[in-house]
């Protein structure tokens, strides 16, 4: 079989191809940005679960998976058995299938759960009451310290 060499491209053809590559890359970037913005908008608009719904086991409104599957945390990769590694790989494949359009660089999960959720399309779970109280106390203490500082500064 005889192989025929390809004809060399002219400068105009090279420029046209370069423009086409740049146009394609720009269109892909715009589509990625559009998808991310749509996912953020949807995430803001979707109702987040209440503490009662979380405790009742209501599924994630973003992906339909349990927020906490109660299977426990994954062991560190170096300590995984072959079976656990296989299960982890299968869970990762299911995640990628559910979130193939998300393009999120970050996943989140809750303590004691192997279920992973997308940062873009899965609203985070509510704070538990103890964490909410601790956060409120922290914010209050910070505001009081700022008020004391500004009151002390006004008397000088």
From TrEMBL:
Q: Where is this region: Disordered?
A: 1-108
- Basic and acidic residues composition-biased segments: 11-51, 83-102
Q: Which domain of life is it from?
A: Bacteria
The entry's protein name is: Uncharacterized protein
